[in-house]
Amino acid sequence: MKPGTRILLALRNFWKKYWKYIVIVAVIWIGIIIINNYLKNLPEENIVANTYTPDLPVMDTGEVVPEEEREEVNLVIDTFFNYCNNKQYLNAYNMLTTDCQEYVYSGSLEDFTKYVDELFTTKKIYNIQNYSNVDGVYIYDINILDDILSTGTTGGYQTHREKIALIEEDATLKISNQGYIGKTNFSNLTGEDQYLKIDVLYKNMSYDREEYAVEITNKTDGYIVLANGAAANEITLNLGDQTRPALDVVNDNLIIAPGRTMNYFLLFDKYYDDNKNPRELNFNLIRLYGNDLETAQEGSTENSNLAYSMNIKLK
Asked: Staple 236 to which of 140, 176, 218, 282, CB 3.0 to 4.6 Å?
């Protein structure tokens, strides 16, 4: 028998014996190819990445919340929030800095209770985002929302957003809320001449404002006007590359009666994290008058006995 014939007979016998297995393998192989091609042609699934990083600041101020402190920061915020949510007023109040208690709530638990009751009318939830960090003060945005799952609220969905600061006080991390940061006391910040004396006592810092407490003494026997809106920029805060005018001096005129000492608050726009250091308080148009209050209230430079300026350096 020829070799070619023997090969054909062998192939035929192999086919008769194993044809079922060959068909099965071929079907599986073809199926794999079909499925593989199908999967290759499927559109790619868009996977949404979770970019929520509550402890990384939105503003780059060169500082971050240290990793070893993040757990404590979140625990303090959560504990304070839960105290408010559960109307545990005193516990929450005691978590506030002393400056915040005094400035925002006038040192009154009753005032703080009103804040809690007005905000936490129903069960609330919250989320936070570190906003900026300056000189060891951690500033967070906190967004407080109605807890729909808890209350079943279907309408009138309420949200409240404010900035809170976390500040170490007496080796304990405490909260300053409603956008307030803290207080800085001054000593020996004084401008004085033969007519008047101005002492800068302290300033209260909110996230977007600075408020300076000044004590002004009139050393003359006539009226002195420092600001009444009669001219622009009567009192300004010097930040080096720019100045900011005092706010609302038109509605709170600075007129000092003869021989009197008065206390005033000067408010300026100033972001806590803007990296600008206040350099001077500028009293740009001090006007001296006689003993006629009506003339002093008009505030015109032409009718004054003397008009000049005074700058007080801020350390």
From this structure: 282
